[in-house]
């Protein structure tokens, strides 16, 4: 859970913006954009566990 919290702490505004843009697409363009929401969850978890350690700190390169 700490990697997820670490990523959210560092990039919450980016994920919020992406979600808002995707929501705009759902309501104003086509409902097919709703398929993007599960993909966002997968991307978020991927970046959390790849880029953050078990303590929620960013891994060094």
What are the key terms here?
membrane; mainly alpha; 2 helices; elongated; transmembrane; 61 residues; transmembrane helix
Task: Give a brief outline of the structure.
The chain is mostly helical and 61 residues long.
The value of Rg in angstroms is: 13 Å
What are the segments in which pLDDT stays under 50 over at least 5 consecutive residues? none
- In terms of DSSP E residues, the strand content is under 5%
Give the oligomeric state of the chains in this entry, treating copies of one chain as homo and distinct chains as hetero. Answer: single chain
Percent helix among the residues?
over 70%
How many domain modules? Answer: 1
Mean pLDDT: 88
SSE order = HH
User: What is the overall number of helices?
Assistant: 2
- What structural class do helix, strand and pairing data support? mainly alpha
Q: Describe the biggest sheet?
A: none
Number of strands: 0
What shape does the CA trace take? elongated
Straight-line N-to-C gap: 21 Å
